[in-house]
Amino acid sequence: MLHNKKLILAHFWLAFGGFGFALLLGEWQMYIRSPLHAWLGNPELYYRSVTAHGTTMAYVLPTLVAMGFGYAITEAALKRPLIGRKWAWAGLGLVLAGTIVAIIPVSLGLASVLYTFYPPMVGNPFYYIGVVMVVVGSWIWVALTVINLHAWKRDNPGAPVPLAMYANTAGALLWAWTAVGAAIELLFQIIPAALGLTTTIDAGLARVFFSWTLHAIVYFWLFPAYIAYYTIVPRAIGGRLFSDPMARISFSLFLVVAMPIGVHHLFADPQVGAGFKFLHSAFTALVSLPTLLTVFTICASVEIAGRLRGGKGALGWLKVLPWDNPLMLAVAFSFVMLGFGGAGGLINMSYQLDSSIHNTQWVTGHFHLIFGGAIVIMYFAIAYDLWPHLTGRALTSFRLMRAQLWTWFVGMIVLTFPWHYVGILGMPRRMAFYDYTDPAMAGEAASVMMSVLGGAILVVSEILFFTVLIRGHRAPRVEAGEYRFSVATHEPHSVPAALNGFGLWVSLMLGLTIINYGFPIAHLMALRDTSVPVVRVGGAK
Amino acid sequence: MSETASPGIEKSEQVERRWATISIVIVSALVVMAAFAGIHQATMPQTRIETVDPRTLHIAGEFIESNLGSALEADGSVTVRAVGQQYSFTPQCIVVPTDTPVTFRATSADVVHGFLIEHSNINTMLVPGYVSSITTRFATPAEVYMPCHEFCGVGHEGMWARIKIIDKAAFQKLAADRRRLDCVAQ
Amino acid sequence: MINSEHEAQLNDAALEPILRTGARGAVVLAGIATAIVIGLWFAFYLFVFVPRAAP
Fold first, then answer.
1. Interchain proximity B27–A289, CB inside 8 Å
2. What is the pTM of this model?
């Protein structure tokens, strides 16, 4: 008979606790003493990783989300099966194949050129060919989107295009046109150089073509999130969309102004003159307008949900909103991150202010906050909303979804706020190593470590995210019903042609492209002797 | 949308229009501020494009090695000429005076580089085939870093130059003896 | 779908009195948010850009 159970138990727990800790230390020592750890500080592996991370996060993730969500909208909003199903699968196959073709040379260290390509550095041709395949696969989606809308309009003459489909098509058209810049750079400059067909390349001109794609691509990434703001959130939280026409105007403005502003990525470059840099800066200010409109319209739509629940006062309605609903949490977090990320963006676009932080870690912090934060959190929300309709099984744990969204939000703030700060301190971008013992760098050390902690929180969030989705494939079967979108306060019976189609906006977009990019491109193409020798990367001959 | 709308809908439309107007005013104000900052406090990037051949930089022209470094011009201003290449700047240590217009003229000998000067708004790209030119002024003596901030290959993390800002009189004295100044030996 | 539906959500009549107040809450919330964003821009201008600008 044991009388002092707690005493004995305490001895054993203390013993095993110490043991557990010391065992881990022992394995750490084994690892450090062995040849296995030599790779940890290898800069080449760092740049390989940056290339793979950037390529996947910038070219693969958002493209596939836009395509998948786009097909869901096409079927649910137009209420008919997708026309061109086989082509859609072919498009997906091309994206997948392209990703594999691109990632193989990157993984082998043959194409550590980063996702922004950086000519005259040129890597293995299959990296670029893979990226082109991904883009072509996505262009199949663009074509199918247009074809499906056209068929619906023919069968429903004069009817208002459902908002979700209108926005989806605008996003597809924007992507199709903005991808052309990088496509020209890849097809006519980089791939010929990578294949050895040319030995020189105009790096300045290549950067101008890339800038054509570089800004508007982030609006392509943004479209699914903004579509969710307008067409999913009001429905989900028990409200109404405040204004259908304002939504159409915002999406149309994005279609027109998102693309011809790319030179703001070239403010510090010598191959574009000051006049065009200022022009692009001014147009970039214009593209903040649809976001300002969106913020108001969505706040007003959410307010309706609050007031319907009895919320009173100027801000008291916030308290009574359904905060247990993951979509409510997602949109709130998204807007907070959009606010800070947007402020950073306004600073970056303000011509001279950019010179304080250009190519510092501020820029990297900025786009992780706005894209990885504000936009990607809505990708999660879209997945949560659609999942039961795709799997035929219920998503049961709101708690887990909320925990995932909370950790993503907190992790993103902890990751990016110190990141902006070290950028202000002057920490340059894309270096594999920093000497934190140097007095000039010592002030950055604590902030960088905080960012590492933020990243770790994001990894936890990622695990939660996969847990929710995978469980969603194994939960009890449920009839999810028809997928619905939000209802406007005033559902339109007819919509002006300008907000029901794209002829006007696409014409404006093309016209602005000519005005804003025509001269810079033509001038550089006409200048003689600006082609410089290709510098091969990755041990290629 | 030209249908009979309830008073509530009309009020909504009015509120949206007001917000849109305010937004347009805010956006315009930002553009004006950016222009103001550009004109008055500028570290203006060059207005025109200048080209150069990276293959012959070291053989002939403005960027041969003996012409790099800081040069005191006849009008009292200083021109600093530098070249960036994988993975260093030449000269590795650049000396400039306080209280003087300083123009940096630089280019790349191979791939895209860039540099910023700590504690300043000097920030430019170096694109092979083009000359970057940027004019500024330094107020107080200091020693600061000038890192390459554009990915230029595997050795990018090692590409750091130094800038020594010294008193104007001290600089004039040094410049009396030598055509081109740098602080590489220090 | 994830819905916290409210019975009055699709009832135009219930909506009308809410709309007549003119999105007061949204104006306040979006207004505060926009002011913060513009404030951050000015903070950067005054505390980062200007101190580094060439004299």
1. yes
2. 0.94
